[in-house]
Amino acid sequence: MAYKTDLLIVKPGSARKQYGVVTDTLAAIEPPLWGIMLAAYARERGFSAAVLDAEAENLSPDEAAARIKAAAPLLCGVIAAGSNLSASTQAMPGAGDLLGRVNAACPGLKTFIWGLHPSALPERTLKEERTDFVIQGEGFSAVTGLLEKLKAGAADFAVPGVWRLRDGAAVPSPREPLVADLNTLPVPAWDLLPMERYRAHNWHCFDDLSLRSPYAVVYTSLGCPFDCNFCALKALFGKPQVRYRSPEKVIEEIDLLVKNYGVRNIKVLDECFILNRAHVEKICDLIIERGYNLNIWAYARVDTVTGDLLAKLKRAGVNWLALGIESGSEKVRGASKQRNYGQQKITDAVALIHAAGIHIVANFIFGLPEDDMGTMRETLEMAKALNCEYTNFYTAMAYPGSDLYREALAAGTPLPGNWLGYAQFSEETLPLPTKHLSSAEVLSFRDAAFDEYHSAPAYLEMMREKFGEKTVEHVRGMLNFKLKRKYAAGAKR
Q1: CA–CA separation, 398 vs 416, rounded Å?
Q2: Closest CA to 63 of 88, 93, 97
Q3: Do 98 and 10 meet the contact criterion of CB atoms below 8 Å apart?
Q4: Which CATH code fits 5-165?
Q5: Could you say which DSSP state residue 104 is in?
Q6: Residue 203: CA count within 13 A, CB half-sphere
Q7: What's the pTM value of the predicted model, to 2 decimals?
Q8: Which among 380, 403, 400, 404 has a CA at the least distance from the CA of 392?
Q9: Could you state, in order of their start, the residue ranges of all structural domains in the chain?
Q10: CATH H-level superfamily of 199-396+431-478
């Protein structure tokens, strides 16, 4: 069959299953950054490429399959990822559903699946999903290697980073080398996306909820040097490490987004942006020189923020920092192999960020291995005392590729019966039990804690002072979205 394009990258439209009703108005619609990174890399090497974002275009799986058939690609790649790399597992049901429909609609079309989850479980993914190949790792040379093989009519698809089936058995592959110099990567292929369809998270635009679009995601580094036991990032990158993109390459992309697409709202993808001070300061200086009116959010660490750096971040348009505090209990934080900050260090960092005029998204996890009702209450009380502008309460999940996953398998700990059970906000959500609590107890505490925090009088008054009555009413309306949970406290398992 004649093909029209060499490579088609597809993001499935499965967000509603992952996030429930909150995806309709509250959640972000994020561009598939890794998809357009892979597309740009292939284009630079002479291949034609296209991207189909079924989520942004609100396509059903059948509609997406029909669009793929019409595009007639030589190779079709499905991206199993969400807002963060750790969201890959919960994206698997949508990715698998789409692959099955593509297989039926386009017999003979070669497909691959990419994401952190497939990288963590390449053999299982290959056997469970209707796909020809599983990409393990970043995928740049793996995808172009596949394209070269297909164009040459090769029967052997031995390419580093590409797992495949032979006679029903998975054929493993050595990992492809990581890109040593990120500056050799081209600017992501933003021109392949429907840019008008992307929007920021609701909290990202609490200052003006009518300005959530346009929206983009950029990276200034890839990887993370830390090794938290609940994180699966090393399944994609091979080991805890971080590589940096030059500030000049970062600003080149920001220039394009601002001038070509009118982007103001930007998420910095980096696992921890506020880590290398010289790197961060140079990026800020370049933005400040241009006088852009940006609304940026990025991840930071409690122990890397200083007053003068925060002042520069604010001038550059960094209006939100996300802090991974995780637990209000020093015992729980230490047992999870994390940076076991003292309570005062956390309090001081939050005060310093607020003094710089920067808002905070505080991230906490309920259900870490040492958690009991008392330590989870400590976490909630710490969150209320810090009184940040938005707080994410997550439940501990044993994501494939993480130490928690391996430990859970070794101990025979009950895990979700399907991949959607790893989604934080779905009806199927099933967190890990702790040494002291059932999964249902952890999940019920999390949902109650979210409501208790965001309805607290002190929180609402702070929000009124900072953002106005309209945003307060938006927060109250947000609390009306009640998540459906199959595994609530008291439910049989």
Answers
A1: 9
A2: 97
A3: yes
A4: 3.40.50.280
A5: H
A6: 20
A7: 0.94
A8: 380
A9: 5-165, 199-396+431-478
A10: tm_1862 like domain (3.80.30.20)
- Mean pLDDT for each consecutive 10-residue tract of the chain (493 residues)? 91 64 72 97 98 95 96 97 72 95 96 96 96 96 98 94 92 94 97 97 96 96 87 88 96 98 96 93 98 97 92 98 92 64 89 98 94 97 97 94 92 92 92 94 96 98 98 95 81 44
Percent helix, strand and coil across the chain, each to the nearest 5? 45, 15, 40
The residue whose two tokens read 């945003």 is 471
Q: Are 27 and 19 spatial neighbours (Cβ–Cβ below 8 Å)?
A: yes
By DSSP bridging, strand 133-135 and strand 162-166 are antiparallel
Can you tell me the distance from the alpha carbon of 437 to that of 228, in angstroms, rounded to the nearest whole number? 21
In the block, residue with structure tokens 């890397």? 304
What is the chain's Cα-based Rg? Answer: 22
Q: Are 86 and 116 in contact (CB under 8 A)?
A: yes
Note whether 439 and 493 are within 8 A (CB): yes
d(CA 448, CA 25): 21
Token pair, residue 161, equals: 């980073």
3-state secondary structure of 312: helix
CA dihedral 256, 259, 262, 265 (to 10 degrees): 50
CB 134 within 8 A of CB 175: no
Per the structure block, which two tokens stand in for 295? 């609304």
SS3 348: helix
Peptide bond before 194: cis, by omega within 30 degrees of 0? no
